[in-house]
User: What shape does this take?
Amino acid sequence: MQKLKNYINGELVEPISDTYLDNFNPAEGKVYSHIPDSGETDVLAAVEAAQAAFEEWSTLPIQRRSDIMLKIADLVDRDHDKLAMAESIDNGKPLKLAKRVDIPRASANMRFYATALLHFASESHQTDGEAINYTLRKPIGVAGCISPWNLPLYLFTWKIAPALAAGNTVVAKPSEVTPMTAYLFTELCIEAGLPPGVLNVVHGLGTKAGQAIIEHPAVPVISFTGGTTTGKQIASTAAPMFKKLSLELGGKNPNLIFADCDFEQALKTSLQSSFANQGEICLCGSRIFIEQDIYEKFKTAFVEKAKALTVGDPLEEGTNIGAIVSGTHKEKILSYIRLAREEGGNILTGGEQVTVPGRCENGYFIAPTVIDGLDHKCRVNQEEIFGPVVTLIPFKHEDEVIEYANSTAYGLSATLWTENLKRAHRVADQLKSGIIWVNCWLLRDLRTPFGGMKQSGIGREGGWEALRFFTGSKNVCIKL
Ligand code: NDP
Assistant: This one.
């Protein structure tokens, strides 16, 4: 069985303890590889390598830095099919989704920041004829990058690309649940000639390897994407050490459907925003608010479409919904469906585990689930489920739905459907979310700020925001 390795100081190495964790194929429910169970000593070695590489990498001419990153992007494209297959097997997502979204986005992330760094500029200020101020933006040092399992290579590269582009060296830890594509990526970094120590990848448990990265005094900047509870734990460790922190956390995103929307478009896209990637996208709209006048019509059409989705083998072309990422996560989702029943919800479709015959008979599958009859304040409508489960809630007035939408502790993204331009601006302005989509969903421009309000996080990724995050500013004031 394949054993993955850590990537430290330019080499693929075994964990110092020589202990490994099981890595599951969620569609089959069985172990298919082993990953390093890294600990503090592996992290120490990785941080030392990153510290040693910092001087050279941070002073490399930016064109050279850019060229190396572009080379990595090209290699990701060259291995598109292999990486997509690995992502699908490791995560359970449909292969066609990994091919269309995850892997192209990973190379796009590398390419975007490889070219952005060539255009990154800092400010200068003329102070009344008395002085000139100019601001330098310098790389910070060793960046700690920790990413989740839902979009493994996509989110891993979304962090390391700006960190490296800004001139930092990196110690990264992908989710222990989906380590495979980050491992394959390290092979490509070696092939591309990334200097040793510039990127180091330590595999293992969050509470052990991840925590050791956060605690290390020589890692002054941390970029984390994951759950809100983990984010709190990370903040409580990093804040007293005055580390620079970017936290991209959970969501409970509202999807507002007004009666004056383009009905067919709203219906079609809401199906995607509910169930894409098994609902395991932090931006999925899990609470669908529908204006009373079209509630029954939307409900009937939506449930019919949800029923028609094919839950099945992620490697088959016809599959819409693949496997849930792990047995533990499957149980968490099923527990929320039970809670929905206890809270008085009606399960309109789904609500149960699905057995997919053949090689996937022991896999972790859940039918797309649509629930109505729940109050917007109940736990199912307040807590993140992160699976193929959505609730439908009718509303009468604009003010009412804004209150419902803003009623959770989260504020990551929101979607609204209306053909009324004034309403679109008005509602977008009042929704307490970091990202608002009007008449679309997941339409991404990598230059835009990405991140959440309230308990969905601190800081923004994307565009110049990420390059600013991964640099420290220093102002120089010269008296004229
Ligand atoms: P987790 O918070 O469980 O884990 C995220 C990462 O943190 C993993 O690599 C995990 O390792 C690691 N980790 C866990 N504990 C610690 C610790 N104490 N110190 C350092 N690292 C640690 O999230 P999930 O992987 O379950 O991902 C799902 C969550 O991510 C959802 O809440 C989702 O909303 C959120 N998310 C947010 C996004 C955003 O942009 N805002 C985008 C995508 C997802 P291990 O896997 O080994 O536990």
About this structure: The radius of gyration is 23 Å. The first strand starts at residue 2 and ends at 3. The pocket of NDP is lined by residues 146-150, 155, 173, 175-177, 205-207, 210-211, 214, 225-227, 230, 233-234, 248-251, 282, 384, 386, 412, 452, 456-457 (CB under 6 Å). The first helix runs from residue 40 to 59.
